[in-house]
Amino acid sequence: MKILITGGAGYIGTELVNVLTQREDVEEIIIYDNLSRANYNLFLGHNFSNPERISFVKGELLDSRFLKKVLKGVDVVYHLAAKVTTPFADTDPHFYEQVNHWGTAELVYAVEESDVKKFIFTSSTGVYGSSKSSVEEAATPNPKTFYGISKMRGEEHVGRLSDKIDTYIFRCGNVYGYNRSMRFDAVINKFVFEANFYKRITIHGDGRQRRSFIHIDHVAQALSHVLDGPLQTGVYNLVNRDLKILDIVDTLKQMIPELEFIFVNQHLKLRELRVQPNQILNKALSLPEPISLMEELKHFQSRFSF
């Protein structure tokens, strides 16, 4: 099969490309990315299983004419491209609308005129807004940020495809874990970096707010296993941990006893979001049970150069 990955040079995209190149049924992977994050790590130092299957196309989501050309002969589209930030950030509303909302709309228009058979969209649990109790997919989206709103609008456009082709929307939790194209604005990644090199981390609020998380390896495996067919089309929460920020700090403190931490605006109670892991999804995609957070963070730390 021939696969197109928008945002394929990003954090999730890099890991997904690595997994897909190991599949015998994948003949060609087109990475479609505008490299707006100036992250070129996808192109460096990798030993992909079958690099001859990979090609790169620099392009914009809003360039619908070019998108239609690139989609010729494509069987599966992974739509990962987005203006990305943590779920509670609330800046750059124009960019969120342009990329996450209207960029997704242009891609959907192009797919509607193509022969694509399967469409997989990585949305965000940020569409739920905030919740002190665990929310499931049936909960009504109620985003509180420009980012969350733009992802919800993107979902609405993607939903139009569901009557025509196999369509999957994955609402990912806060993604963490090592790879070469990783983001350091995500809370766990940021904490591990600061703990390793500064021996001090900064906590916003009182640290008791909860968030839902998913390891980068599990995201890539889930997206790959969709190609195997057992999962019904629909909207799914892709999370496997529900943690207080202080839970992460406690784990790092056990790893690095000399670790210090400071609170910023400790008097503020920040919004929290708890999301129920979908056991049906985990079973259908044969996702492994997560190992302990301590083991994951130790493995992460071991990948630093020093």
From TrEMBL:
Annotated SUPFAM superfamilies: NAD(P)-binding Rossmann-fold domains
Residue intervals passing through the bilayer: none
The NAD-dependent epimerase/dehydratase domain, residue ranges: 3-237
Recorded superkingdom: Bacteria
Family listed: Belongs to the NAD(P)-dependent epimerase/dehydratase family.
PANTHER family (alphabetical): DTDP-D-GLUCOSE 4,6-DEHYDRATASE-RELATED
Name under which the protein is recorded: NAD-dependent epimerase/dehydratase family protein
Organism of derivation: Fulvivirga marina
